[in-house]
Design brief:
This protein is α+β, with helices and mostly antiparallel strands and 458 residues long. The protein has 21 helices and 8 strands. Helices cover 50% and strands 8% of the residues.
Length: 458
């Protein structure tokens, strides 16, 4: 007798999961993800890429585009909300593999919940399941997906969104297995945006969100997908992470007893995940009143797996061509930390990118590979500033602030949401309304309806 495939094992667990079995920590993390994700979407609606996404996907419909009065069809709403939520790279992530589950799973579940008339409890269950599966796939992938030139959020997020929507729809195990099989052929997303700072990474979350709805609906309708979608010789990992021999145990071990969705990390800064501890180091150095003009050079010890995305080509990273490219430039991130002591939305604008002091400092930042760096299991930081007079100042950070070892509190997440609303010209009080909405998903009965999320007006 053949052993069950990985998708079959996942499907059996998802189909049998009862809401009462979901841990409190998983519920809290899902609520925090809703607060963080929706506020980020609203903050990005009027950006150039936000307006372009709204025009491209804006077919009129009943599903909410968060922060706008009008709605869109379910796929368009999911695509717009996901694109805007992920657009500033300020959304939640996962240590071990930087998959941004919130910006994929929440848009998918909210649009599906509205369009299909699902209950609040079903949507809440789907949120937890979707984030759980995306994160577990991230543990299996490690740095393999990135190393192959693909974006984990696009590839693994599609699978998580599909699992979440299938769970919310109450699919049978065989339907969920087919939904996951179909989703494998909808996964995509190359990381060539790194070459010129163009926008495609931003759309990956939105595209994965709408793909999750489509794949789940196809599985529900009986459309067959390969049951070996994960481990097959032409499966997801063979295609998108060919450099690794995947250990699939973390995908199914301890399901329902260890909740990886409770381990999501929330970003204090509006840029790439692995740069965050380096900004913290730079911000602490900034408090020492180091004069930028007196700095001779800056050296950072880094993990080898981060170099091709955040450090090379070094000349390009030292002079990023666009604000979006700057989000994936460790030299720029370290420079703004040294100058501003912060890296919020205001530090990644066209105006900020023209600051001569920041650009001069960025050109002084270089790196050395630390062979003992723990990436991707842990994200650390190190900045050493060498002055022209021979003095040196150095800071290290052992973990990602906002991650599992140093988590952000609910109040810190609300403060971030308030700041993002204000940046977008909206009322800060919207964060409190958002908190109550997120809580109601797990504490109230009745049909799901997120039309309230259109109401964050000036």
């Amino acid at each position: 007798m053949k052993s069950p495939t990985r998708s079959a094992l996942l499907a059996e667990w998802i189909a049998g999961l009862e809401e009462r079995e979901i841990s409190d920590s998983a519920r809290i993390a899902a609520q925090d993800s809703v607060i963080d994700t929706v506020a980020l979407c609203v903050a990005a609606l009027e950006t150039d890429y936000g307006r372009a996404a709204r025009e491209a996907f804006g077919a009129i419909g009943q599903c909410s585009v968060w922060g706008l009065g009008e709605g869109a069809d379910p796929y368009g709403a999911a695509a717009i909300n996901g694109t805007c939520s992920h657009g500033e790279d300020f959304d939640n992530t996962f240590e071990g593999c930087p998959v941004h589950s919130g910006a994929v799973v929440i848009p998918a579940l909210f649009s599906a919940g509205q369009h299909l008339g699902l209950s609040k409890s079903s949507v809440a269950k789907g949120l937890v399941v979707g984030i759980e599966i995306a994160n577990r796939l991230g543990i299996v992938a490690g740095k393999g997906v990135h190393s192959a030139g693909f974006h984990p959020t696009a590839v693994l997020g599609t699978m998580g969104a599909t699992a979440g929507v299938a769970a919310a729809m109450g699919q049978s195990a065989s339907q969920i297995r087919d939904s996951l099989g179909v989703a494998g052929s909808m996964s995509a997303g190359i990381i060539e945006y790194l070459a010129d700072g163009s926008w495609t990474k931003r759309m990956h979350a939105g595209w994965a969100a709408q793909s999750g709805i489509r794949a789940a609906r196809m599985g529900k309708a009986g459309f067959r997908g390969p049951s070996t979608v994960f481990e097959g010789s032409h499966g997801l990992f063979a295609a998108f992470a060919p450099s690794i021999a995947p250990d699939f145990a973390p995908l199914t071990d301890s399901l329902g007893s260890e909740w990886q969705c409770a381990r999501v990390a929330f970003k204090p800064y509006a840029c790439g995940t692995m740069t965050q501890p380096y900004i913290d180091c730079a911000a602490r150095l900034q408090k020492k009143a180091i004069v930028p003009e007196e700095i001779a050079r800056i050296v950072c010890e880094v993990g080898e797996g981060t170099v091709h995305r955040l450090w090379e080509p070094l000349s390009l990273k030292q002079s990023p061509p666009t604000p979006y490219a700057a989000k994936f430039s460790s030299p720029y991130a370290v420079a703004i930390g040294l100058v501003h002591g912060d890296a919020g939305l205001a530090q990644f604008t066209d105006e900020a990118l023209r600051d001569p002091v920041v650009l001069s400092l960025a050109r002084k930042v270089s790196y050395e590979i630390d062979p003992d760096n723990e990436y991707p299991r842990n994200y650390t930081g190190h900045v050493k500033v060498l002055l022209r007079d021979g003095r040196a100042f150095e800071e290290r950070q052992a973990q990602l602030r906002g991650g599992i070892k140093d988590p952000m509190s609910r109040e810190e997440i609300l403060a971030k949401a308030r700041a993002n609303f204000v940046f977008a010209g909206r009322r800060a009080e919207g964060a409190e309304s958002l908190r109550e909405f997120a809580r109601s998903l797990f504490e109230s009965s009745g049909s799901f309806n997120d039309r309230f999320l259109r109401s964050f007006q000036d």
